[in-house]
Records
---
Amino acid sequence: MAWDFSTEPEFEAQLEWMREFVREEIWPLETLRLEYDQIRRAFEPLQQEVKERGLWAAHLDPELGGQGFGQVKLGLMHEILGSSLLAPFAFGNQAPDSGNSEILALAGSAEQKERYLHPLLAGDLHSAFSMTEPNAGADPTLLQTRAVRDGDGWVINGHKWFSSNASIADFLIVMAVTDPDARAHQRASMFIVPTDTPGVNILRDVPTMEHPDQEFGKFGGHAEILYEDVRIPAEAILGGEGTGFLLAQARLGPGRIHHCMRWLGVSRRAFDMLCERSLYRYAFGSTLAEKQTVQNWIADSAAEMQAARLMTLHAAWVIDTQGVRAARTEISLIKFYGAKVLHDVIDRALQAHGSLGYSTDLPLEQMYRFARGARFYDGPDEVHRQSVARQVLRGYEAPADGVPSEHVPTRRRAAQEKFAHLLEAVTSND
Ligand SMILES: Cc1cc2nc3c(=O)[nH]c(=O)nc-3n(C[C@H](O)[C@H](O)[C@H](O)COP(=O)(O)OP(=O)(O)OC[C@H]3O[C@@H](n4cnc5c(N)ncnc54)[C@H](O)[C@@H]3O)c2cc1C
């Protein structure tokens, strides 16, 4: 019977190093508002240090230049990196490149790995994942972007948006319908499309709640793209024809859990601010720490964060021990629950800081805007709840006679029959 919550001492030492490194070397850089190119240059020595510690691209197997840590160790690591939006960049596992490298590792040909995966892992190329369309989001079976065979290649036409980092990417992984008459989940395929291919028109980075003043070509932008007669060679397809949904599932499974792991780090940072504030802010005769409402916020946040952490690490453990498919329910559970915990903890910390929390003098308002998006990307809350409910309900069936199985009068009658001899004995006066 193994039920072990401990971390190996060697890995704990690595985690300790990461905590210090992220707090001392990366948090200060956040305040400098560096441009993307400046970030790349500023991070080079940090990335070198991470490589020397054997922590680079930890999400991938060793033969691909990664560390092969498995999801539980990654979870513990991402929890630390998640405390800063910049930290994953220093460790070679920033979204969306990390998820895209998993697709390439899984489905890429030897040539695709050589040309795209290895430079992506080395940090020399950047990528984007282009699936969502203005008219097809939560339900990707509604995708309209088409890839049509033409001679010895493919021609793509379509309209996508929210392709994160596309305006700074070197290549896109595009999901397009290749066989509109096939069954819903076999209609689409994925393609590698270099961003400088004629016909790839990146119209803008859509300003969002997270980046209201988004300018074109910044790290973290979400691009709107028109694919107009984009001609690519036959070998640009990833995996086989019709495998787009399979690959999307393979990418989004671990990708979702990595987001959940990072959210633990964001929540923790907001929680630390909440606790610190409660100890020094004085109002109406006491510090906030002495107000029951604030005590409730602290206790509720601590409990919810602990639950989210255990659920995340448990889902990671199921992936490690039984595979992504077996962890579907666990991943969906933590995707919507983790997003809510993230939001609620930040919201309480922001509230406790009053106008200071609302201002950009603290990172809370930015965290709050970031947290709102977590309820959409990689599937909205409602879709994950629906998926959990469906899977849970598979373990139940409706009573044939329409009487609930816990109906007390019915159970009493059955018990009276089953234990008739016993009842007679215990109720007789002899
Ligand atoms: C910050 C951010 C980054 C993103 N990055 C990428 C990216 O890199 N690449 C990419 O391809 N996409 C990306 N997306 C898009 C993301 O995947 C979509 O937002 C998501 O799939 C939902 O699609 P939609 O926004 O079109 O919402 P819609 O499909 O329009 O859904 C809207 C709402 O309808 C409701 N709804 C939908 N289905 C159900 C249901 N079954 N039951 C009940 N209610 C339901 C939900 O409330 C849902 O929020 C990103 C989004 C965000 C916010």
---
Amino acid sequence: MTGISSMPPDVILEILVLLSDFATLSAAIRTCKRLYETFQFRSLLITHAVLRNAAGPALVDAERLDYYGCVHSLPEEGHLESAEWKLTRDAAARMERRGRDVLFLENFFSLRYKDRTSLSSRLDAIEELRFHRAIYRYWLCYEILQYDALREQDSDFEDDDEDEDEDNYQDIHPDDLGLNKEQRRARDALCDALVTSSSEELFELVEICTFLKDTEIWHGRAVAPTSPIQPVPYWTTVNPEKLVASLQTRQMRTDQYDSSGQHELVSNAARKLLRAHKIPHERVSQARPKAILTSVSGADDRCSRCHAICGTDLFGSTNMYLLSGILPFSEQLALLPGLLHRNRDEVRLLDQYVRNHGNPIPVDVRIRQMMELEPDGDDADYEHWSKDEWYCLDCIKTLLRLRFMLWWREEKQKSGVTLQDDCWYGYNCRTMTHKSSHALKLNHLCKPTRGDAPNVTPANNAPVGTT
Ligand SMILES: [Zn+2]
Ligand SMILES: [Zn+2]
């Protein structure tokens, strides 16, 4: 640290305010006396600067959320900027933690909607600010609803005479359709919290509601490998913190769907305020307003195989893993040729293999292996695939139709299984779908040599297999 000892205090200050988080700051001031002295002298300025680096560009929204979490009311205007408000170590740690969660979501958002070629966010400074403030406002709404629900439980005995009068109004406002009294009250509490938001910020919030909901649905599909996909009700709560934890651990959190109405209430509140801002109805009712991104990288990019313009919906090495929630395993199975997906014994073996004792083989790995196959003879498909190219979902499905069965046959052989004799009816064999002894006795991962021609439509033309 001799270099630092001779640095002017201004330079040391410049270094400290650039540190990305409090762990680094703490380590730095413990290792060097000069750094420690500078920190002591300008601790408030340095702590706030590091907090800004750790919590992201929407610091005021992050602070508002933290304030609400502590006292269950919103700060007076200007309070967070005043000397009355002191940043405590605990508050800084909480905001830093939330900042990491928000960054995680930003990276995911960026990969899906901004730049499919990068796992870390490519949002520009303005887009990042919009994303962060919207997430923090959503999160604040989530906390308000949680607190409101708790209060609601405590005050169940209250008389609702006043509200009954309200229900007699002849013109129910469109914002209130489908909401009961409690939900309307909770929604109005959100409107109070959001009342200072501009129209632009409210549109960002509506977009974030849709993004979080879509991400939750994507995750639900990705973690249900072969079981039928469980429908995720539109109105379920999205808890940003739990969503991030689920995405990181790839586990379904059973307590994620423990409440009702809240997602809908956040966007409902934002839409109600937008109507109050006299925004035209058509704009307010948009499901996904494009409010966060100014531009999208590769928006006009084409599929390498079919040349369709698919932009961010193209899949390549960085984002192929997203297929786990877009084309879940149960839907991949349906792309096996003929009647194979109805061969329960084969599907069970394949499922066990892919699950791999709790350490599943990810879809992007399987897709890459299928691309690298070099089928010849009867299996030749004369297709060229490359992991360095970008493909649309339809072409990925074509790859699975052509090579999923071949891949599985090769994987079986590689793992030491000796394939039985081919059944004459191959993947079109009907007997394998209802007779386990037959399904297990012969190999069906092959083209039919008898019966109908290969690739018949199973539903209409499946041959009657014999044993
Ligand atoms: Zn294509
Ligand atoms: Zn058969």
